[in-house]
Amino acid sequence: MANPAGLWYDNRKIMKKILKIGLPKGSLQESTLKLFKKAGYYITVSSRSYYPGFDDPEIEAMLIRAQEMARYVENGILDCGLTGRDWIMEQGADVHEVAELNYAKEGLRPVRWVVAVPVDSPIRRLKDLEGKRIATELVGFTKRYLKSKGIKAEVDFSWGATEIKPPYLADAIVELTETGTSLRANNLRVIETILESSTRFIANKKSWRNKWKRQKIENIVLLLKGALAAEEKVGLKMNVPKGSLKRVISLLPAMHSPTISTLSDEGWFDIDVVIDARLVRDLIPRLKRAQASGIVEYQLNKVIP
Hints:
Largest sheet: 5 strands, mixed
Radius of gyration: 25 Å
CATH topology of the largest domain: D-Maltodextrin-Binding Protein, domain 2
Mean pLDDT: 90
């Protein structure tokens, strides 16, 4: 008899539910594992294995390059996985996008696919690519993009080290950039951004219709999004005398109203608040001048709205 969706048999013929998840191997691997750890999942990765171990017995994982992830999820080999919007579009994969997770290799921002040329190239705008040779890993999308602009050019697949291709092996490149550092280091300048991409949590459409798998996926995504939100937030605790309470509260750009508790010392209050981490550097001196004391900044693991 066929197994119900989401159920596998082990050697003892005991039914157990399994969610098969793909984790991106390569540039996103380290940041993804770090995010899962902050979300509460302990993952072990062997240097010789493509099968990481989860501390959740209902999850089985594979390390797959982000470029290939969408088609394995679409085909049902994996129930779900993490990959970039760029690779979903490159493959034209028919998958369910569960959530956008705004993180990349080096930060919490989208990445860009840009057209770049040598700094001394006569190519100044996209139309100047007519009849030129372009090297990229994002071949399919680049061809479609140029066609939509009415530009005919030769687009070659690049196996790596794309930045060194111009000017001898290509007139221009379409390359992924997060900070632009590598492009500048190779004396390249950007003439146009053709695609912005962020990490997406995707699911196989049949798996998404399975009640147990969908609930499992939604739980994972909830925790991952909470861990991401916490990356840009910190907690602040402080003691404030009654006479300074209104002034201190007016300085706090809280997510919601701050938590205010009375202390055992009469006329003193404890304030606890969650704020954007980027504001703390300028805020703490102002709080101190407003008579706040015992100020403690602490890191957060998850922020769930």
